[in-house]
Amino acid sequence: MGLSFQEVQSSDLMTPLEWRDWTKPIVARDSGPRFLDGAIVQAWAGSAVRMSQPPLDHHLIVLHQGGPKRVSRRQGREVRSVNVAMHACTTVEAGNTYEWTTEGPIAFAHIYIRPERFARVIGDVYGRDPDSVGFGERIGQFDPLAAQLAIALAQEREDAPAWRMTADHYLDSLLIRLAATTTYGIDGAPPRLALTPVTVRRVRDYVLAHLADPISLDDLASIAGYSRFHFVRAFREATGYPPYSYVINQRIAHAQLLLTTTDDPVAVIAHACGFATHAQFSKKFRDVIGLSPACFRRANGWS
């Protein structure tokens, strides 16, 4: 295991944004970074075959992309080499430092996690003392569910509707999956909880009152009185929808009402329903309804 939660706060550690050696040589390409609460997501390709990874103040999840490869990790005299499949994951605990060598396609997504976010999520879900749970390390281990979650998180676009809510859900689910498969000190499944009809109504009323505003998982979970993870599971069981899908559906339903009861321009309706741009709104509306907003308006007798 790496450093303790308290030791990870040391100023001797480097932040992910200070670590730039992985961008060499000059042909290296990176995207982002994209920021979440206590996390950073960044994808990159074409960097050096050999890489020195300093002790970071974040845990690191690496999603291997580009195709199969062979990855070697050196720490002192200890060397471990692994044949890594496409979309396998490597994890590094905050505070640990390694030398890495990659033979094969060099393309990765990096997901950096603040130790306190990991500790909070795992503590909430499993009812454990966060300081008793370590962030397990592995090299190129393929798990289909972890791969799907990491891919979804790496591909999620910031300009997508409900981006932050969706990305937070993917990230929490990924952390919980990794905890169940690689983290020290975790046994058993998370407890199951249920939302009462009164709680569902409170969440629904909040969503309807804030359709024009950003809505986060933290907002909804706080109203329900649950952790983010427990709220997502309980809300889906109660309504049949994950929270982010529910919010989008409510926004589209409100847009349908405005399109057929007002003369407001489509761009104004998009803003009133929480969409950043006309184009974003039109795409999501078409995905859900099957028609563009303008065609829907005409089909319902409004020119």
Q: What is the radius of gyration computed over CA atoms, rounded to a whole number of angstroms? A: 22 Å
- Gross morphology is globular
Give the proportion of residues in helices. 40-55%
Query: How large is the count of helical segments?
Result: 10
End-to-end distance:
65 Å
Element-by-element helix/strand order: EEEEEEEEEHEHHHHHHHHH
Oligomer: single chain
Mean pLDDT: 85
Widest beta sheet: strand line-up: 1-2-9-4-7-10
Low-confidence stretches: 1-10
Tell me the strand percentage band. 15-25%
The major beta sheet can be summarized as: 6 strands, antiparallel
Query: Structural class, judged by helices and strands?
Result: alpha+beta
Per DSSP E runs of 2 or more residues, the count of β-strands stands at: 10
Notes on the protein architecture:
- With 303 residues, the protein is of the alpha+beta class.
- It is built from 10 helices and 10 strands.
- The protein has helices at residues 115-126, 144-155, 163-182, 197-209, 217-224, 228-239, 243-261, 266-272, 278-289, 293-299, and strands at residues 29-36, 39-45, 50-53, 59-65, 69-75, 78-84, 89-92, 98-103, 107-113, 138-141.
- Helix 1 packs across helix 3 (163-182).
Would you kindly provide a brief summary of this structure?
The protein is of the alpha+beta class. 40% of the residues lie in helices and 20% in strands. The protein is globular.
